[in-house]
Amino acid sequence: MLSAFAPSYCWVFIPEVLTGKYDVPSDGKLGFQSTVYLREDTQNWLPEFFASMGILQAIDAEKQAESTAAFLKSEINTSLPGVDASPYFLDEMLEIANDIYIPLGREDCRWIGCQEFEQVSSKYGMQDSCFGMGDTQGLTLETPIGSSSALIQLNTDIPHKELGNGLLATILLPFWEEESAIVDKCSYFNFIQSITWNDVPQLGSWHARERNKGEYHPANGTFYPNALYVNGRATNAALWQLGSARWIKSEFYADLEDLTMAEILEKRVPINN
After folding, report:
1. What is the pTM of this model?
2. Of 82, 128, 205, 261, which has the maximum CB count within 10 A?
3. Is 131 inside any structural domain?
4. DSSP, residue by residue, 81-147
């Protein structure tokens, strides 16, 4: 439930069932993590963007530590910058959200009217592995997972509960189970992605989302605050979520034989010649 609101990072802990398989200790620690892959063609802009997203980990960790520890009946893992530091020390970088992100989030979503949504759908959304529709308000993509499809959406009308307006990029997988089973599955997804070289950025957290009463499916969300709007970011967001969905398919559902998107859509709405 809490990880559903993680704007730019993943909630990661080591599932007990995996401690033997991967020879890692089950220390009970919960951490925030995000990952990107740097290449020559991204080195001029990606580090600054990643730093701007990554700072939210420290801000949220400081803000949520006490309440989350109480909720989980755990202890806060804390430290100070030096032996002489005041126990009330607070680094000024932790005020970036209050000083910059939240005030800009009160403005209208900066991605409304963005032409990238239509450009992405026309360039990538007419393939066997991807179908898409976009307009000036948002984007929807689908990619096959077996005989069904993962749903990827870029939304301009769903603000973050603290950061306000921005761009929300989501993935919904076409599998439904009871909540506890989906929570376990999402925890597994998050952990494996955090330790695997998969060439897909880890900027959001997998979590359980309710479909119908008592039915949940795996979902992923990444939120891009208004403060981080630049031309091209919506395209990155869409392709990164598409890549994440394809990675999930190859890593966890490799035994499913994918239909083409044309076959999936025809099953859904039969086309008569």
Report:
1. 0.90
2. 205
3. yes
4. SSTTS-TT---GGGGHIIIIIHHHHTSPPTTTT-THHHHHHHHHSEETTEEEEE-SSEEEEEEEETT
